[in-house]
Amino acid sequence: MTGDLGFDIRDVITAALVLLAALMCFAAGVGLIRFPDVLSRLHAATKPQILGLIAIVADVAVTNPSVGTITLALAIVFFQSLTAPASAHMIGRAAYRTEHFRRDILVIDEYTPRQ
C-alpha cells in the first residue's frame, strides 16, 4: 500500500505515535520540574507517562503486527496501567504522612481528623 510519495501508511502512523509519545513524556518531565509539591508532581508523573507508553506500544504493534507482538503490547499496557496508579497512591500517602507537601495549596484534605 505504497502511495505516490514512496511512503507507507504505517510510516505516517509510526511518526504520529512517536511524536505523541515524545510530547507526552516531555510534558511529564516538564510537570515534574514545574509543579510545586509531591502531590502535584504525581499527576505529571503518571498520567502523561502512561499515555506516552501506550503510544509507543501501539507504534510497536502497528510496525510489527504479529500475534506475539500485539499480545505482549496488550500485557505491557495492562500491567503498567495497574501499577502506575497504585505506586502513585503509595507515594502520595507516604508524602502525606511525612508532611512533604504544601498544605496551603491543598484544596480538600480528607485525612485530617474532624474537630
TrEMBL record:
The keyword Transmembrane applies. It holds the Pfam family PhaG_MnhG_YufB. Keywords: Membrane, Transmembrane, Transmembrane helix. The chain crosses the membrane at residues 12-33, 53-79. It comes from the Bacteria. Signal peptide: none annotated. InterPro entries: PhaG_MnhG_YufB. Belongs to the CPA3 antiporters (TC 2.A.63) subunit G family. This is Monovalent cation/H(+) antiporter subunit G. The gene is mnhG.
